[in-house]
Amino acid sequence: MMGTLSYLVFFVTVASLFAIATLGLNLQWGFSGQFNAGVVGFMAIGAYTYAALTAPAQHEHVGGLDWPVIAALVAAMAVTALVALAIGLVTIRLRTDYLALATFGIAAAINHLALNLEGITGGGRGIAGIAKPFADLPPLWFGLAFLALAAGALLAVYLLLERLVRSPWGRALRAVREDEVAAAALGKDVDRMRLTAFVIGAAPMGLSGALYAAFIGYVSPYDFLAILTFQIWAMLIVGGSGNNAGAVLGSFVVWALWSLSGIVVVLIVPTKLQVQGGAIQAILIGLLLVAMLIFRPRGLMGERLHSSPLLRDDAAVRH
Amino acid sequence: MKTRFMLAAASALGLMLAGNAAMAQGAAPSCPIKLGAIIPLTGPQGPIGKPIADTAQLAVEHVNAAGGVKGCPIEMVLRDDTGQPTLGVDAARYLVDVQKVPAIVGVVGSGIATAIVSAVTTSAKVPMVSCCAVTPTLTRLSEEGKTGGYFFRTIPTSRVFAVAHAVAATDRGYKNPVVIYVNNDFGSALLRDLEKAIGTLGGKIAGAIPYNENQPSYRTEVNQALALKGDALILIAFSQDGATLAREWISLGGTQNLVLHNTLRSQDFISAVGARFLTKAAGIDNAQVAGASVDAFNAGFKAKFNRDPVGPGLHTVYDSAVVTALAMQQAATLDGTAIRDALRQVQDPAGEVVVPGVEGIKKSLEAIKAGRKVRYVGATGPFTFDKNGDVTGPALVWKVEDGKLVTDKVIDLEQMTALFKRIGY
Amino acid sequence: MIAQLVIDGLLTGAVIALGAIGITLGLAILRFANFGYAELMTVGGYAALTAVLAYGGTGAPLGPFSFGGFLAVALAVGLVVTALVAVASDVVVFRPLRRRGAGPLVLIFASFGLALVLRHVVLLIFGTQPEYYSREIQMAVLLPGDVRVMPDQLLVLAITVLALVALWWLLNHTRMGLAMRAVAENTPLARACAIDPEMAIRWTWIVSGALGALAGTLFGLTVQLRPEMGANLLLPLFTAAVLGGVGSIPGAVIGGLLVGLAENLSVLVLPTSYKATVPFLIMLACFLLRPKGLFGK
User: Fold this and answer.
1) Transmembrane helix: present as a keyword of the record (chain A) (predicted)?
2) What residues 131-190 of chain B have any CB closer than 8 A to a CB of chain C?
């Protein structure tokens, strides 16, 4: 039973890390309608920043800076936000599907840089020996302590984002999403709001990547392939975009399906047929997503309607 | 929908727990003994992973036919990592925590192996015997004591390949070969070692062109390499890309003086490129020296799959599974640390030589049970784990004759060690 | 060297151009970026392969080419099968979403999911090993200027030109083409003129599916068939479509050729390991300097 508990602790930790990134995406897409198809690029920046600041000195790449964990996590978020700002300034005026293409390409480019900038990223070999917090504890305690860190970070991001989207700024952001022209007519600086949401949304992705690096202790370009972007998106869509609790729930559900379906394949499919099992798994996940979009477009938990109680009667009258 | 969704998730979880409960019930005699395996079955490495998984299963069948470990049959619990490190780590955690496997074999991708060592096996004190991860990063981690001695591999490090490439090229009188190599940890580490090896053996690389995996076409890379006007091409590529690169190289009039990497040692590659263009080609691979132990494996493989065991990782995965099983037999308890130490004991230089195949494994299991020392000489020939869990092994040079792969030359362990010294690794 | 790179760029660009037309039609008429489009190339390539395997090869090689006459039949099979798959994907996935008034981004995401399904179905059926229509390797012919090309590639170029002419005729001289163009310009207005937008959409899927199959088959002929081939071409295809300007077919063609050229010429200044980043850099530059593309309206 201890074993299952230990695995569950691990599972919840990984799902929490994904949930942090999904929350960031929810601010970008769910609340401000910006299609970021390069989530994995921002996670990679966070992970590599954390790795570069904490990994021991090596002759192949930079290291030996020995930053404390918290400082490195904050720096990872800051660097990711800065990169997002630069990307946002370039792409902010793009129509939405162009933004998807641009960010998709940016993630591919970041992966190429990770593979080729050996002096910073270690190239294909990656960066090993990254500082893990709580590394001195016995394994199960390490797992629990890291779970506390991951869940704490998730809770903090959740609360901050909830506060943000309920604020007047958050309401204005949704107004921008629904109708840019009308929002602009009401005196909102549309570009600035979108850019701010893009940058704030990128920071949790960087945090997620950095925590992942801290959890595993190793990063390589193979950690940040396009499939991960797809997984994060699946989490948001399944959970329900525009709802932060839904984003968290979606992360847990989708990651459970993704990893448990592998376990189920182990348990029920004979070893001989498992190659086909893997392909069928991918097909089922694809079908699930499409079915979700068609039959339950708002996800497990759709967006809650936020309106001031004072306005509610008004709205009823108008309808 | 929501409830159905939850139900699905809950039933999946239930299945997992049921598997666990079933295991706990059988825990008294602890039969069968579980052996974890993590191998990519889908994704970019799927084509090489599938035969590797089959061969690992063959090794387990051999051990079981030989009577099993401590009187118990072994059950291989296989997980697909799909080439994604996150899933590889998840698989390792699941195998270690829920399935309670005392050791893990397989693990093809270097990035995945390093992530698992770093996040799971070292802290859980579970030995991992990789069949295929060649990255020098793991050697460095071992040297720094960050693997706790729980990491082993049955595939030689990239240096053995580098020496083999250099020997194959210089034997054929190639002085200025061009290299096209895959731009990842394995390719770039190999290139560095290769430059040194070829320099020592009296050649000089005319130039090296990296290529990224999964590009739609490699014509540009091939043209760049052609422009270097070398007298041969050393091609370090994975199977699918390798076929494209070799076809384009030959089409565009490149020399047919090819030196091919072990990933291309397959009938698929020969039929994709065409045997008539490969008459002058040479290739390299680790180990598989001639000898009783290799023949025993080859015969066992052929009996099962009705073809010759040709392809990357087959011999090494067999050895990783068998040597782990022998170590389990040797270890006083089925505890990761005991198995870690036993992995070296079953390679006792003074021990009785034992070989692959049901008969050989049966003899070794019995010898160990009787308290005699054994030395496992495997499908890859004789090999010994060094202090970092690495092996230096013999290598071979192959060529294509009448459309078939044949062994041209063997660089045995002594020659290899001498060459290492001469090159100054 | 440069002449060789230019020729290679044009040859690669021709296949990209064919695929980019499908994308640009999708962007203009279906009004979303179909990330699953490239998978139609894979489907087309493999459908043609199925025919070749069933026949037992492509027949005796024709003249200097690597394949026999049966490849034309296989290509026709590929065109039909892919057009059917394209229409089916619309009926099953995109039409229900459209009816519900889903935004373009939901459609994009659905196309991601569909791509995953199609790719793995191909993988499930055909396995992961690369496949070829003909295992014959052809020797390149040496053209003046030390340029080497393969006869197959020249044929690919010729077929691309023919396909473009046929497409131009289709769009400009048939009722169906007129309807498609009308819907691309202004859907409500088209509807007011008694043009059924659903019909135009159906034809768009058929035409773009067929073009995808053609591109996939030609790609398989000159490189190889792999389940991931479409996914690997996605970025160049979109770059070409965006560079040319949404909805502009000549734009997509020129965009495709430019992307092919830029990728190949980039090695003069960048290491080859950065080659795959080049299409993306072009796309970003295009977004910045001329967001409507070269020929956009």
Assistant:
1) yes
2) 183
